[in-house]
Structure of Methylmalonyl-CoA carboxyltransferase:
Amino acid sequence: MVDEEFRDTTAGRMAEFEQRYRAAVVGTEQRARQKQHPRGKHTARERVELLVDRGSFVETGEFVQHGGDCLDEEQRRYGDGVVTGHATVDGRKVCLFAHDFSTFGGSMGEAFGEKVVKVLDLALKIGCPLIGLNDSGGARIQEGVTSLAYYAEVARRNSRASGVVPQISVVMGPCAGGAVYTPALTDFTVMVDRTSRMFVTGPEVVRSVTGEEISAEELGGAGVNASLAGNVHYVAADEEDALDWVRTLLTFLPDNNLQAPPEFAETEAALPASELDTLVPDSAHRSYDMLRVLGAVLDEGELLEVQSALAPNVLCGFGRLRGRSVGVVANQPMHQSGILDIDASEKAARFVRFCDAFNIPVLTFVDVPGYLPGSSQERRGVIRRGAKLIYAYSEATVPKLTVVTRKAYGGGYAVMGSKHLGADVNLAWPTSEIAVMGAEGAVELLYREELAEAAANGSVDKVRAKLLAEYREEFANPYAAARRGYVDAVIRPSWTRQRLATSLEMLETKREEGPPRKHSTMPL
Ligand code: HXC
C-alpha cells in the first residue's frame, strides 16, 4: 500500500494520531523538561501531577495550536504554552490550567487565552474550584492586542466566578505584566520562595522609566509580595510545598457557594482546655500567644494560616471544630498587642468575606487595644480602609461566633465581631475588659485635675492607684457588656471549645437574607 492509501485506513489514522500525540504531549514535555529542570522548576504537566490524585488528570486542548497569522508554521506549538484540564484532589473535582514557560515564556496568546477561558467556564458550569499554576512572561508580544484582549476575557471570568467557586493561584516562576492580574483576582495566591517573581513591570522597565535600580527579588520576590504588598497568602519553600498547601487548603473549602465544606471525623484539640484558665497574664502589659488559645479550641489545634507574613497582629486562617470547617480571625497579642491597623483590617476583611461567600462560619477571638493611632495610618486611609472590616462583618450572614479573651477596647470592640455587627454568639472570659479604653489612659484623661493636685502634694501614686482600681471595678470587666446582653455569657475559658462547638451546631440552620440590591458599594 502506498502511503496515501495507508493514511486513509484505520491503521493509518491510528498511526497519524500516535505521531501527533507524541508531538503534542511527549515532544512538548521533553522540550519543557530540558528548559525547566536546569532552572530548578518542574514542567506544567509535572506540577499538575504533583497536585492532583494520581492518574486523575484529564488534559484538554493538547492539540490546540495558534491559528492566527502572526506566528509562522514553525512557531505554532502544540498546547500554545498552557496545559489545561480537570482532575480530582482527594476525590473532589478541580479544573486547572498550568502555564508552560518553555513555550513563548508561558505568555498569553489567542489560543492560550481560549484554553484558559474554556477551563474557567467549565469550572463555573460544574461548580468546582479553579486552580491556576502561573509561570509566564505576560502578554505575548508577537500577538499584540489579541493577547491583551484575552487578559481581559480571563479577568472577566475570574470576576464572574468570584464567590461562586474557590479560585486559587500558585506562582511558580515569573508572573509579569498582565499575568499578575489573574492571581490578584483569585481568592488565594501562593508563591514559591526564590524561584517566583510577581510584578507588573520588571526591573529593566523600572530602570528605563524611573531610573530606579532594583533587583527582581526586591521588586517582586515572594517576601515583598507577602509581607509588604499583601498579594500572597502563603510563601512556599519549594514547588512541592506550594502544591501541598493548596491540597490542604481545599480540605477546608466547599466545591462551590451552594455547598457546605467537607466534614471530617471529630478529633481532640491539641492542648488541654484547662490550660486556658491560666493563660492570660495578670499584667495587662504582658502578652500571651493567641495560637495557644486556638491550640486548645480547634481540632488538633490545627490552623491553616493565610497571609501570616502580613499584619501578624491579626491571625486569619482555617481550622475545624468537631470536624467542621471554621474561619478564624484573632488578634495576636504577641504582635503590637493585637492592634488593628490598615493591613490587619484589610487582611481580616477579605478573609471574612471569603468565609461568608463559601458557607464557612467565622470564629473571632478578641484581644484588641483598638485602632493604631498616628498620622501615617490616617494619611494612608485607616478610615476608609479600616471600614472594610466593619463592612465585612456586617455583611456576613454565615454563623458568627466571638470570644473576648482580654482587651476589647473602643473601636476594636465594636469591629471585632461584636453583637452589634450581627454576631450570633458572643462569649467573654472573666479576664475580659470591654471598655472605651484601658484603665491607665482613661484615668489620665478623666482625672487630669485630681492627678495634678495630687502631684503637687506628693500623693499622686496613691491617688492614681485608687482611681485605677475604681475604673477597673466599674469598666474593665465583661459584666457591664453582659448586663446589657452584648455578650451572651461570661464563661470559664476552659469551656470555650465545648461552648463554641455546641453553638456552631445550634447555628447550622441559620438563614439570613439581605435586602434586594444589585450589589453593595463597600468601601474599596
Ligand atoms: C513572548 C516571551 C515573553 C512575552 C518571555 N518570552 N516573555 N515571548 N512574549 N511576553 C520568551 C522569551 O523570548 C524566551 O524565548 C522565553 O520566553 C524565556 O524568556 P527569558 O527572557 O529567556 O527568561 P527569563 O530570563 O527567565 O526571564 C523571564 C521574564 C522575561 C522575566 C518573564 O522574559 C521578561 O521580562 N519578559 C517580558 C515581560 C513583559 O514585559 N511582558 C509583557 C508585559 S505587558 P526563547 O525563544 O528565547 O526561549 C502586559 C500587559 C497586559 O502583560 C495588561 C493586561 C491587563
